[in-house]
Amino acid sequence: MVVTKIKIGVLGATGAVGQIYIKLLANHPWFEIVDVAASPQSAGKTYYNAVKDKWLQDIFVPENVRNLVVRDVQDYTKLPKDLGFVFSAVEMPKKEDIKAVEDRYAEMGIPVVSNNSVHRWTPDVPMLIAEINPDHTKIIPIQQKKHDWKGFIVVKPNCSLQSYLTAIFALEKAGFKVDKLIITTLQAVSGAGYPGVPSLDMIDNIVPYIGGEEEKTEKEPLKILGKIQGDGIVNDESIKISATCTRVPVVDGHTASINVKFKDKVPSKEEILQIWKEFKGIPQELNLPLAPKQPIIYLDDDNRPQPRKDRMNDKGMAITVGRLRKDPVFDWKFIALSHNTIRGAAGGGILNAELLKAQGYIK
Ligand code: NAP
Q1: Is 336 in the pocket of ligand 1 (CB under 6 A)?
Q2: Among 9, 63, 207, 316, which residue's CB has the most CB atoms within a 10 Å radius?
Q3: pLDDT value at position 2?
């Protein structure tokens, strides 16, 4: 049987996240890359020539994109026809330029599945983690009507919170309401894009500050756990989060140390482990192509999870947790890890697009 794939584009295809899109989509069963776009410096070159000096992946540049000619993200005249949607992993000096670009695609009828932060706080733009808030896509028709767009925009959250939020959500869903969280992240250098943090700042060192990251870690979960009300998504303000975000000399994989205080009922260790083991979301129920079979993997060994050993669990899409132990100040504490450029960026974006296709929003 011949399967007709949805034709798609990648904006920012030459960057750190864009390259992961290219790698993960090389043999995707539903989506076929027909358009790669980047800055005016890359435009006009073949994809291979545009990335050959900054290709970071452990496979050769995939054949399906090697000879595609890179388009300037803002050259709308060269857009291929029948584009089903685009992934946006574009970075530009001014945030308002990225917003203008994403709005323009949505206005032209091309849905945008974005990694960028510019629309995360637009009330009618859903910020999706497919296992947590797949129902937030119901805001899409409201968004389209309000902006008079034929397309639409969905975003995924910052990579720093992917490692722990699903584990916290699973406990909330099981009826154990969370009151407070203290989060300390140890974030990989690939999170800063290419070429990222200078090597002399990073080797043999830890940088105790990442601009804007703590605010995102403290606020974005509230929208993800929120509800659609009227023409926007209203935050769940019942959880208080305090975050410290650091950059560590790890290539890929954001680790987080989490302390949890529950509101009233406190689960036992056995209950927490059982909840994590049994947790499944809509992506698992629908068997979406990139969905991890088990979204939360708990490792018993005291010295796990570790970025180098555990970031690729289930194609880099699973969250790996460990070291669940009593907290003498709060109730419980644990360590969580997720692959920042896969689960936290391109893989998370692809899973969102698979969800949108399964829900009928992209065709
Ligand atoms: P990056 O490595 O710096 O790549 C940026 C991309 O944007 C490149 O393709 C670049 O093209 C293109 N670009 C730069 N200036 C442009 C312009 N003026 N017009 C059009 N395109 C332009 O950044 P990244 O780490 O991949 O991040 C991309 C986006 O994903 C950012 O919004 C970032 O915040 C977000 N994100 C990143 C991560 C992560 O772990 N890295 C995780 C979650 C979200 P050229 O190659 O031609 O310069």
Answers
A1: no
A2: 9
A3: 67
